[in-house]
Specification:
The structure is a single chain. The protein has helices at residues 3-11, 16-29, 34-44, 49-61, 67-80, 86-95, 100-108, 112-130, 136-146. By secondary structure, it is an all-alpha fold. The longest helix has 19 residues, at 112-130. It is elongated. The N and C termini lie far apart (69 Å).
Length: 153
């Protein structure tokens, strides 16, 4: 086999089954939305859009990828671990191309009381560093808004 033939064989896209198996293994480890897994499939298929679309449809049919399930997991994680508010979570999920129904269902699973308690804890900790600042109250409001919470909270 010449060096040119070796280059050509390296450029060939892997088989559907091989890529599908690899992506299934990734989906077992954590949740992915359709847009994320589509991007990964396209990369693994070396730009073959038809093969990537077939793989994504297969993953959706076998319930390895589900946008509603992803939205719920994402909203719970970002709310509880990162301290994000509902506005920031909604914005991030829209950026990933999820439907408004999936986003609303995901946000409905967030514990509102725990999120409010987390916000109060965050604000009280932030206030300690801003209490001497003349614009401290304004900065505190901006901080809460940047975390994705509503002004009314």
């Amino acid at each position: 086999m010449t060096s040119k033939e070796k280059e050509i064989s390296k450029e060939k896209a892997p088989s559907r089954e091989k890529v599908l198996s690899a992506l299934q293994a990734q989906c077992v480890k954590r949740e992915y939305c359709v847009s994320d897994i589509s991007r990964k499939a396209l990369e693994r298929c070396k730009g073959d859009a038809d093969m990537a679309a077939w793989i994504v449809e297969s993953l959706k049919a076998d319930k390895f990828v589900d946008d509603a399930r992803y939205a719920s997991a994402f909203a719970r994680e970002k709310s509880s671990l990162s301290g994000w508010g509902p506005i920031k979570v909604r914005f991030a999920l829209r950026a990933k191309g999820l439907s408004d129904e999936d986003i609303a269902a995901g946000l409905a699973e967030v514990d509102v009381d725990a999120a409010d308690a987390r916000l109060k804890k965050l604000l009280s900790a932030k206030w300690k560093s801003l209490s001497e600042d003349k614009d401290g109250r304004l900065k505190l409001i901006k901080f809460a808004l940047s975390r994705g919470y509503e002004y009314s909270k």
